[in-house]
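Lecture 7 notes: from sequence to structure.
We start with the chain below.
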Amino acid sequence: MDLQRRSHLFRSLNTIALVVGLAVNANAQLPSLDAERSKNLGIAYLEQEQPRTAAEQFRRVSELMPQEVLGYANLAAAYLRMTKIEAALMWLDEAESLSPGHTHVLALRAEAMISSGNWSAATEALSRAIEASPDNPTLRYARLLAIESGGVDDAAERIAQDVATLVRLVPENPVVRLRAAKLSAEDGDFAAARDHYGTVSGLVEDAGVPPRATTIVDRGLQAENGPLVVRGLTVIENVLRPTEPYKQALRAIKSPVVGLPMLKFSDAFYDRLKQERPGSIPVIWEVRSGVETDAKGTSGRLDFADVNGDGIEDWLVSIDGEGGSTELFLSDRLGDENGTEPAFRHSLKRPPGQAHFVDYDNDGSFDLIGTGPDGVWLQKGMPDGSFIGVNDTSELAGINTSRLAVLDLDNEGDLDIVLAADDDLHFWQNRLDGRFRLIDDRVDVFGLPNTESILPLDVDDDGDTDLIVLDANGRLRLLDNRRLSRFVEMPIDDDRIYGSATAADVDNDGWVDLVAIDADGALVVKRSNRGTFGPAVTIDSGPVSVVEPLDFDNDGWTDLAVAYGEAVSLLRNDSTGEWSPLSVGNTTAANLDLGGTDVDDDGDLDLVVLDELGVVIVYENDGGNANNWLRVSLVGLQSRGTKNNLHGVGSRVEVKAGLHYQVQYASRPVTHFGLGKRDRADLVRVTWSNGVPQNVFQPETNQTIREKQVLKGSCPYLYVWDGKQFRFATDLLGAAPLGLQLADGVIAPDNPREILKIDTDMIAERDGQFVFQFTEELWETIYLDEVGLWVVDHPEGTEVFTDERFLPPPYPDLEVVTTRDRVYAESVTNTAGEDVTETLREYDYTYPNTFEATRYQGLVEPHRLTMSFGDVSGLANPMLVMRGWIFWTDTSINVNLSQGEAVRPDFPLIDVWKDGAWTTMQQPFGLPKGKDKWIVLDLAGHVDPTDARVRIRTNYQIYYDLAFLADAVAETGTRVTRLKASSADLHYGGFSEMVRPAPLGPHHYDYGKKVSLPVWKDMAGLATRYGDVTDLLKTTDDLMVVFTAGDEVTLTFDVNEIPELAEGMTRSYFFLSDGWDKDSDRNTITGDTVLPLPFHAMTAYPYPEGESFPNTEAHQRMIRETLTRKIGPEAYRDFVKGKTFSERPEALPWEETKYIVEGPGGL
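Predicted structure tokens for the same chain:
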């Protein structure tokens, strides 16, 4: 009997009780989950070189899981890091008592013995470990070194055995082969010596080993002179030792750190943590009064949004056809005439067609868009709940269409539309004022007339919304979003004919699957495997007419509501791939659409059904709220934002509770998640439609969370050792963006070279070095070519500055300007005419202007700053010196701005008072290149020296905090010492906590508080391998270090290279950097890949045909030997799904916004 016939057995029942299975207590897993969380935290602390804090976490692991070796072994590893050998041995004894002969424990014991100089005990421990794991090359090499150091009686024989085994295990390793060649030569086996030496000949040639060394080896092999061969091989080893291939080979067989922790518990531990099967609860469906429309038809649609703000979603009901209409019904919390349940009252009527809720102008009020006999219509929602027609959509009128989809085509913060017309698909770009622009030629997708349906869905989780369409023949077609409003059709291997399709992650693997009804009415699921759809699997032979995904019992697994004509049923997802049929009830006519919404605001999803007679029926869910639930309501920024559509449509929402994981893409204002019996969600992560992530740790269950969009910054950061700690100094490379669009299709120029002043009180030596941390902590990739430190000695009574402005080309040469005799303004007035003179006398985060924000981050209402300096005729060469910072726009905001006309960026201009009038200087005033930047502008010959006045005008969000005139002086004896880095080490550094020195101050970062979670979704490609990168940063030569979010370069500069400070002189410091940064913003050109690599001679980025990255041997070697570390989105993508979380991190690398938590009754 198929599901439809089974459902007929219950047609006479209006109330059905559903009882499914037995409940499982998820709390039984809590100790194991907490242990897993503490283990992960401990390992993260070890990675951050915080062994003491790591030990606290591992001690908690041992308390929670006393039968597991890991807690004790990792405690020993932490104490080894602290060089507390006795404590380490104590914990190793505990570990061995649980698991004698455990390989990892024995390896740690050997490290402890080596640290105390007991080589024989170390050798014994390693031998026992090798008995358990004979093919572990790291253990073999460690024992070899221990035997060599300890003077064991049969050392030569045992070393030979280990070397022979290593050759078998890692035959391509040059460290092993060179050692084997030396041993063979010592033993007189010259055939074997030649064989071993031959395997490293290519490396020897590439490394530029001096011919005299290779000649010695060749002569020795020819003469079969063992000592001569060994001498030559030793020279070769010494030459190869600092090369990266040799170091990589050594790392493959030798642990890079002392105290390497265990990463996994035992198999038995993870068996106990198997994901539980969802529990069961009784659910009763009761028919409640619905509404009746005046419409009838054969196709219809339901949509839901809380238009009137009462916390219950309102209904938009549309029926197509000659007798159809579109009608809006608003909820009334006062309920029906008896006050027993919410009622829905008719509010608006429009022509027939297909209608959607949409906030097209991002003003916070829901608008309506729909199709009709005269084309597309648009109704603007007003704050008082009324609607007015928008007449400027005349370009959409007359298009014969009955299908549309709403999505952000170009990822720049507003919702565009795709129309299915009788001639083709048409793509319309939103201009935010009710008008739309046709961009078919740009999208470049043609040949899809009479498309049956359009489903927006990020199929491949690359951060942009793709389209799945059913063409006129019912075939599935996938249009892959390639960004910048371009789509490319990708094949779908499926010959079935379909009538409709929707999407849901039915197996909770993080990839959204297709749920479709074929032409015969069979219901099928096409599971997604990392963005590729598998074959269609029939789960109900039908005939099914409508399907809607929803989690009716809040167990955390997506179920399916289905209609078989007038019969309504549920297919319950039991998490194993099986679907249990459950009848709900019958309507009086065939059903056109189904929808899940919480009509009575009790925490479970009720079922709303629209039939072809225009009747809307509510089946109230009684019992689904016995399981816990969470609702996520996304709210973008209405000012300083417009980087996402206001309700986050298209954003990816992930929820992790223990081991349970779910993902949904926001397709309407509220996204509902069931949590089962879990007491709470551990983490909610929202990846907004512009790619910026936001996390909420441990939200309460049975609540609604309003996620507020967070802002992202730009540019890498520089920290400097101040004698006590690493202190945030500034950000860098603000004038060197790659692929940044200033407007749609207009690419910003880049100026990769800069010097930035470091405040003298920030810098102090450590062990004879000045130490800096060059970090990347945002969503971008860095291409760093050169760093340096300029030490400037200048006469006492003078000051030195450098111009740190973002300016258009041609770019001025880098120089240090020496000044004396500050002159502060006698009066300063702001836009409002207020006297703000005192605000510009100290750099103290007090500012002269208060801005009126616009909807765009980085742009405010036009403002001006007028400064009067009086008589400055005593200054021979007056220079305007200012300090301030800018809140940047970004490439998506720039694209959004260029598509509309409401706001235009005004690049700062400077006016000077001369001859009794204001005159605008021809040169642009420019922008501060980021945080805490100096501005230096020569005013000689421009201002009236007897009445010096300047006025700065712009609408950029710039905060000026210090301003004065000074006299530029030359020939003062100023001396500049230019230092190269004495060392540079690239490694993982994590993400520092964001702080602000004042409410309106720039965002700074606390290097001492870090987290190691993958905050950003990295570009795909190859980055520089970790380790020594000193040589790559010596000069500007396009031999560069490529690194990404979470990476840092530790830089040292030798204090001994600085001349002694002469009497009567004082000292200042400037940091030099040469490189580029590429933001991963959705509208950055090639913002999703590391390639192409930039270079100084390029004329544009991406560079035009005919230009290419340098192809010298040195550049090819850099690519081949250093760009070997694979990066990409996988770590970010798998983080929430693959981890467990018990508490909010101690540090947060973003500016935390206060999310609003509400109980039942509030969305």
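Points to note: Residues 1-27, 1152-1163 have pLDDT under 50 and may be disordered. The first helix runs from residue 3 to 8.
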